[in-house]
Amino acid sequence: MDNTQKGKITSGSHLSYWLETTSPIAYSALEKDLKTDVVIVGGGISGVTTAYCLLKSGKKVVLIEDGNIGSGETGRTTAHCVTALDDRYYEIERVFGEKKAALIASSHKAAIDFIEQTSLKENIDCEFERVSGYLFLHPTDKHDSLSKELKAAQKAGLNIEEIELMPGVTDKIPCLKFHGQAQFHPMKYLKGMCEAILKMGGEIYTNTHAAKIDETGVETESGFKVVADHVVVATNSPVNNKYVMHLKQYPYRTYVIGAKVKKGSVPKALWWDTGDYSVNTEIPPYHYVRLASLNDTHDLLICGGEDHPTGIAPEKKINEEDRYSLLEYWAKKLFPIEEVVYQWSGQVLEPMDSMAFIGKNPADKKNIYIATGDSGNGITHGTIAGTLLTDLINGKENELKNIYDPSRFKIFSAGKTFFKELAGGMLAYYKNKSDESKPVEIGKILVGEGKIIEVDKEKFAAHRDESGVLHILGAECTHLGCIIKWNKDEKSWDCPCHGSRFTHEGKVLNGPANTDLEYYSKDRVIKDRRKQQRSNPATKKKRSAENQDEE
């Protein structure tokens, strides 16, 4: 379902189950200058949790969000609250060592505890439930990976065991059982947290775009200023960081379906496979599954996966819009699913060494902080951000500081995986900058299509919407100038270099870009083309010769 039909703001054309089953969390836009202790940019799990924790510590807080609360990636998650991380513990131990691997495991456990305790304390009915999680072997993976993970996760202090029969699945598949995992409704949780923030005297402003961010605070697109002692940028991909952080992480699109299953046919649990090594041996895309309540007769089996680097799905031979059928095909082999009633996608930032970046922004003033690099574990990483940033801002020692420090540089210990992704991003940048687009006639762009067109060596992005209206934009991402790609599934223009995304009208959906694409009318493009032709010496010479012939 297109989000415009519901009047809800979200970072894609599809509405997630969470956004569909809650009212928009919207407040008034900022229309005055303010002074505060901390200004937070971003109203997802990281920004809202940070605001809550800072207020609890006695700070004055202002939070601004350019859409509605949760309208970015938090509203598009599947809301797994886990210590079973996207990346294996044996890899985490290799990169960070045993002691830090244990701290990492305990930080995610503490994040789950925080969500549970805060929900109880603030009376937030967000459907929080403790469930077990099951990591099972993908057919392309080796059983040795489970053995190594069992050993490393137990050393890290997790309650984990190997079992022979996985609940909910009839096939006998080797798996590990992670105790003490959880799930919840992320939008209901954010709504309750926002109510608590307002009760404590915090201020929240939505539909307020931060156009300028520096050590003095934030200036909005409307020209209002929030002066603050500290600035937190919690925008998934940091919009205040032009280069450094985007050399340390890489963006992926991930896909989700919600399918009906009869109540009682599948137990409440979390499931993840170990990843499809036939697709990518370095970062194998994996599937992740959970249940949510749908109605009196059915539950909703929420299944995600089929990831690919942002902006280059066609290069991977499978278009964005075709990924959902692959998810359905996979889910049907294991679970008794019926009709698929939801589908959506989200963006994941894969950091160089598996851990999020939470702390002071590198090469910036000491009072500017960021939270990014969710690595597919955005709920727990976002919650860790709230508690860790609060300690850093209050000058309190925290043993997690160095682990999540955005200035850390573990690119060499991270290994060849990250080098391949970094090289891929740089190659995409140069390829897109120099790529010669095939000529496309504007009149031949069909409804629903998006094409890169070229007028006198200048590239434009053209899309014809469902009403037949043609929208023409500048084709270079406003972050670093990469040529954008059309995402037919979410009806967005995506940057294959660093993951910026824009609506079909050029409005920013995802950072690191923080400026909209320039919007052109069809007449203006044609007029500019004719103007360039008239000023072209070769064209002038040809026109002069034609005039002489006429005489």
Please explain how this structure is put together.
The protein has 551 residues and is α+β, with helices and mostly antiparallel strands. It is 28% helix and 26% strand. Strands 3, 4, 5, 6, 11, 12, 13, 14 and 15 form a nine-stranded mixed beta sheet that branches. Strands 1, 2, 7, 8, 9, 10, 16 and 17 form an eight-stranded mixed beta sheet that branches. It has a four-stranded antiparallel beta sheet with strand order 18-19-20-25. The termini are far apart. Residues 1-8 and 526-551 have low confidence and may be disordered.
Distance between termini? 62 Å
- Count of helical regions: 12
Q: Name the CATH superfamily classification of the largest domain.
A: FAD/NAD(P)-binding domain
Instruction: Specify the helix fraction band.
Output: 25-40%
- For this structure, what is the CATH class of the largest domain? Alpha Beta
CATH third-tier fold name of the largest domain: FAD/NAD(P)-binding domain
Q: Give the overall form.
A: globular
Unreliable stretches, pLDDT < 50, 5 or more residues?
1-8, 526-551
Helix/strand class: alpha+beta
How much of the polypeptide forms β-strand, as a percent range?
A: 25-35%
Number of structural domains: 3
Number of strands: 25
Overall mean confidence score, pLDDT: 86
**Architecture of the largest domain in CATH?**
3-Layer(bba) Sandwich
Question: What's the alpha carbon Rg, rounded to whole Å?
Answer: 24 Å
User: How would a textbook summarize the main sheet?
Assistant: 9 strands, mixed
